[in-house]
Amino acid sequence: MGFGFFKKAKDAIAGAVKKASETLIAGVQKTAKVVRGGLDLLVGRKLGDEECEDLRGTLIQADLGPRLAEDLVEKAREAYKDREVQAPGEIAAFLKAELKKQFPPQDSMPRFSEKPPTVILVVGVNGAGKTTTIAKLAHRFKAEDYKILLAAGDTFRAAAIEQLTIWAGRVGCDIVKDRQGADAASVAYNAVEKAIAQGYDMVIIDTAGRLQNKKGLMDELEKISRVIKKKIPGAPHEVLLVLDGTTGQNAVQQAKVFTEGVGVTGLVVTKLDGTAKGGAVLAMRSEVDVPVKWIGLGEKMLDLEPFDADNFLDAIFGMDESKKSNA
Ligand SMILES: Nc1nc2c(ncn2[C@@H]2O[C@H](COP(=O)(O)OP(=O)(O)OP(=O)(O)O)[C@@H](O)[C@H]2O)c(=O)[nH]1
Ligand SMILES: [Mg+2]
Q: Does pTM top 0.70 for this prediction?
């Protein structure tokens, strides 16, 4: 399949992100409400000290984090020193333009192997949403005609293997698993071996979020990565770190810790539907040198979207007037 495989995937993603979807808009509405409510109160005012404090408060409440909030407030203060914010949406458009500068185009594109199978390793602390995200990814790529194999690499709990097996059934894809307590790296190895032998396009590997301690967890992830490389040098092609978006800035801190360890290539921020702290997604890019690639917007299979900075900013800050008239 070679390049065609790669291109098809890129087109599939590109086609999906031109405009903020209903799922995205509904998914981040709690965060959007905080942001827009706060910004609307600034209309008709110049950004003096009091207004800047209000703006900072709004950005902090949406959990953009102190550093990013301060940076944006200073830029806005400078821009609106001598004139008033005239219309609703004006300050939102300004902040969006500033934030957009942080997101290089193409940055969030998933990584695929030039030659199948593409191996995706999914990591993160327990409860973050790894297994659910794997099901969502499998569903999405299967719809694009990829032949998908899941690997039940969370051998720590029997329920974890069961949960992934149920998802594989629902999605309609195959799964490689072993008994509870089995060596996770050997499950991963077997899956990759099977994928090569039987022409799968993609292997997605689940991992444990909780082991006896953090070092144990990191060691296990490194071991999985190492044995996969024995079969496919260059794999895993993507290491996705899954983060619980309801924890806001704590998720940002977790991203910092994890990305130091295991060669993470992309972040997945889940559960944005349940929180007003969605602004943390925007802070990730300035705090961690790894792009957010996917966002989780609910518990169902379709509630995962590729992260697109423009659409995300539109969904939270509202769409610019110029864009609305073009839509
Ligand atoms: N609302 C909402 N719930 C989610 C989302 N993603 C995952 N969840 C829920 O979060 C809970 C934990 O998800 P899992 O996928 O089991 O998390 P995990 O990281 O595999 O957890 P462990 O296997 O315990 O390490 C489940 O109840 C999911 O339904 C999301 O985007 N939105
Ligand atoms: Mg799990």
A: yes
